[in-house]
Design goal:
Blueprint: H1 2-11, H2 14-32, H3 37-49, H4 54-78, H5 90-99, H6 103-135, H7 141-157, H8 163-178, E1 180-181, E2 188-189, H9 203-221, H10 238-245, H11 247-262, H12 267-282, H13 294-318, H14 324-335, H15 342-347, H16 349-381, H17 385-404, H18 407-425, H19 431-451, H20 464-491
Antiparallel strand pairs: 1-2
Helix pairs in contact: 1-16, 2-4, 2-16, 3-4, 3-9, 3-14, 3-17, 4-5, 4-6, 4-13, 4-14, 4-16, 5-6, 5-13, 6-10, 6-11, 6-13, 6-16, 7-8, 7-19, 7-20, 8-19, 9-17, 9-18, 11-12, 11-13, 12-13, 17-18
């Protein structure tokens, strides 16, 4: 109870409450704007959070991360355009329900399933805290290196059909992290005699370029669009009654979201696919799927909203982000000298619990906001896409320049923005670059530390956790090679 009280005292500040309100409400609004999404919003806000206390900056970013998928369901259901990429599956069931005059029912189901998935995930996170606190101290430099390596491998292999290019992008990200003045012997790496590269390539500059500026270019190049959705009449609480009818689907889908969220590189898409497939195979009316099935809608929304809280587990326990959004949050920790990992659970458990409680409050705030403001949010859908693109572009450059008041950073960001635009047009993965930069830095630091204690190659895996991680790494790579060979053999 003392720990809980300490966590509440951390949150009971006007600036933390304001950050949570702004993040949760802002995340819903951003999620409802097609073509923007949480990654763009977090990238733009990152520079501003560096001047705030860690708990204030992180609650604002968590608010956007956790609430954007709520808002993304609105255009996915009403105008067949997902607000965020992870709401794409929601269109399969939401749009047919709207077409047959059940828009209010579809939104109500989406809100209730999202709320259930979000709260379920946070409760699992709280229950796992004692286990994480006990296991985290067992991770030394070798274990964290192997965990980071496993994370990169999982991220690469998660891009089915694009594994080679994803591996190349991750390698490119690792290389980007090495540019500049090396911190041990202070030698220049890949600076090519250019003094402006001595400080390295800043992660936030790359993030803003690849996610925000590139998306602005996409919105500016495409034809200008203004969508319209009819207002919703009546209350939106009926979905909770219907959710009780499909409680098995909601629970299993949320469980998939928690499990997939904990695994680096997997995330919402895999969780959605598995939960949707499960719901269809176990449904008494599988023929409804794709034609407005309430079970399919619940499976999709419960799964993707269960991921954000679960994705915080590897970030907080090991300091290893599982995807781009948590990688951005990791930079907030580092700026304030708060190092996620085993030490965080040992020395700042009240801070960890405060983040859990913030996630729980976030879901309540978002649900209340949506119940009363859905029709107001429909105005957001009508924003012209090119106006949104111009706004994103301007805010991105303001954010980049505010980092170090450097015009060179703006030029680098513009270059990565064009690179990201090309990758998006070619439908090639961007996320591995960011994770390569973040995890590459972790791997280099931990490898150097661990090598001081390693006399022979096998010494690297002579402890239970390191051996287990190494075995998982071999199994994952071996399984991929086996399935690839088998699938090619069956095609002949």
């Amino acid at each position: 109870m003392e720990l809980f009280g300490d966590a509440i005292s951390i949150l009971a500040r006007w600036d933390v409450v304001a950050a949570l309100l702004v993040g949760s409400v802002g995340g819903v609004i951003i999620g409802a704007v097609p073509g923007v999404g949480a990654a763009v919003a977090i990238a733009i806000l990152l520079p501003a959070t560096f001047s705030l206390d860690p708990i204030v900056g992180l609650t604002a970013l968590l608010g956007i991360y956790g609430s954007s998928m709520y808002g993304g369901a609105i255009p996915a259901i009403l105008i067949n355009t997902p607000g965020t990429a992870v709401n794409a599956l929601t269109t399969y069931e939401g749009t047919p329900m709207t077409e047959r005059g059940e828009a209010r029912r579809a939104l109500s189901l989406a809100y209730s399933a999202s709320f259930f998935g979000g709260v379920f995930s946070v409760i699992c996170l709280i229950l796992l805290s004692p286990v994480l606190a006990a296991i985290a101290p067992m991770f030394g430099s070798r274990e964290i290196f192997l965990a980071a390596l496993l994370g990169i491998v999982l991220v690469v292999l998660a891009h089915r059909g694009q594994v080679l290019i994803a591996g190349a992008m991750a390698s490119f990200g690792i290389w980007l992290n090495t540019v500049g003045l090396e911190s041990i012997q202070y030698s220049q790496r890949f600076t090519f005699g250019q003094s402006w590269l001595s400080g390295g390539i800043d992660l936030i500059v790359v993030v803003l370029g690849l996610f925000a500026i590139s998306q602005a270019f996409v919105l500016l190049v495409e034809p200008d669009k203004r969508s319209h959705a009819e207002p919703i009449k009546g209350g939106l609480l009926a979905g909770f009654k219907e959710l009780a009818v499909y409680k098995r689907v909601a629970t299993v889908s949320s469980t998939f979201g928690v499990l997939m969220g904990m695994i680096p590189g997997v995330g919402e898409f895999t969780a959605q696919f598995m939960s949707y497939t499960y719901a269809q195979k176990t449904s008494k009316s599988p023929e409804q799927f794709g034609n407005g099935s309430p079970e399919g809608l619940i499976a999709s929304e419960a799964a993707n909203n269960a991921v954000p809280a679960a994705a915080m587990i590897p970030l907080l326990a090991l300091g290893i982000p599982g995807e781009a959004l948590t990688a951005m949050m990791l930079s907030v920790f580092y700026v304030h000298s708060v190092v996620p990992g085993p030490g965080l659970f040992q020395n700042q458990m009240d801070f960890v619990v405060a983040l859990y409680i913030a996630l729980l409050i976030l879901n309540v705030l978002v649900l209340i906001f949506l119940l009363f403001s859905t029709n107001v949010l429909l105005k957001v859908i009508e924003f012209p896409t090119r106006s949104i693109g111009i706004s994103v572009l301007a805010l991105s450059f303001v954010g980049v320049y505010s980092l170090r008041n450097s015009a060179i950073d703006c030029g680098i960001a513009a270059g990565f923005g064009m690179f990201g635009f090309i990758l998006k047009r070619l439908e090639l993965p961007i996320v591995p670059i960011i994770l390569g930069m973040v995890l590459g830095g972790i791997m280099e630091a931990k490898l150097r530390t661990s090598m001081m204690r390693v006399k022979a190659p096998l010494d690297f895996i002579d402890r239970p956790i390191s051996f287990l991680l190494f075995a998982i790494l071999l199994i994952v790579i071996g399984s991929y090679i086996y399935t690839t060979i088998r699938s090619r053999g069956s095609d002949k």
